[in-house]
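Troubleshooting log. The previous structure file for this entry was overwritten by mistake, so regenerating from the original sequence record. Sequence copied from the archived sheet and checked twice against the printout by T.R.
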Amino acid sequence: MKYICIWLGAVITVGVVLWLAVWLLAPSVKRSEVMLSRAEKGTVESTVTATGHVVPAFEQILVSPVATRIVELYCREGDSVTAGTPLLRLDLQSTEIQYQRLNDELAMKRYEIEQSALEGHTRLTSLEMQIEAKGMAVDQLKAEAENERRLDSIGSGTGERVRQAVLAYRTGLLELEQLRKQLANERRIQENTARSKQLEGDISARNLSEAARMLDDAKVRAPMNGTVTYLNNSIGASIGAGEKVAVLSDLTHLKVEAEIAEGHGDKLHVGAPVIVRVGRHNLSGRLSSMNARSKSGMISFIVTLDKDNAPGLRAGLNAQAAVLYDIHEDVIRIANGSYYKGPGSYELFVVTKPDRLERRRVLLGDSNPDWVEVKSGIAPGEEVLISNLNDYEMKQSLRLTDK
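Regenerated output below.
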């Protein structure tokens, strides 16, 4: 019995020594060099993050209305201008010639309208006078026919003379009716001719107005107060109609243009809240518009900022846009970090003793820039290692030291 106790004591001593040796030789990490997150109950507002850049909220692209060439520049890129300020001058000779030609055409149309109206008035007046004269002649023929009937009734006339007088009267009536119909037809012809001439004149007037607008646009003036962010400064260069010559931007108000992989397109909707990170600043905003069509596997969208003139906000800065698409309330959550690559299964180190980290399989859900939802594997109050420890991927446990 004595030897058995001695033997058991020796085995236990050796076991403790071996355990201490293994524990002391196990990999260790310093608490001060890693990041730990304590699991807690709370809300996770699920977001999907996109990349983008800050751009002017309002900008206007100025194009050449005609094919021409640049003659002179009045400003440079970066200059602040007010509405109506000339930006550059284009060669307007051909446009001015076209404008003058259309102006002459309109003047000729107006002369034609006036001449046509005078000629029509003359013809109508002539017909009206003919009708008046014919009416008097018919009245005379009627009186003669009645007189012949009276003479015939008293035996002083003949039946032949009565027939001739009545025939002349009826013929006069037909001729008078013919003249009246001719007058009515002539009036309709004059009305149609006047409308046709007026339409031609209106077309010429619109062409002249369009030419005047093109002539004015060719002077390329600033349509609003802003900053010149692009200017075609190639003096003498030929440019086509519709070609961009300048861009005027309002840099006092900004927005964010972002894009995201098309696989996340179903999580975007107009009006969704967005948190934009620019440098160290977080700015709130809303998804105001999006392109439903994918381009090169990406979907683009616009974020309108609540404070679009916040200090430190400048056009051209890179930005990250976190778009809120769901809210999970009263769930277990841990801090977000470089370890998180999306919803799924992970193997994370969890603090099981003050000086011990054990690898554990956990299931993570949605996230936002601050928090990750824990679906299973971690209880509230437990601490989780959220630092990236790629060197210990094959280890099942680690020592956690204070030094």
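The radius of gyration is 48 Å. Archived copy saved in two places this time.
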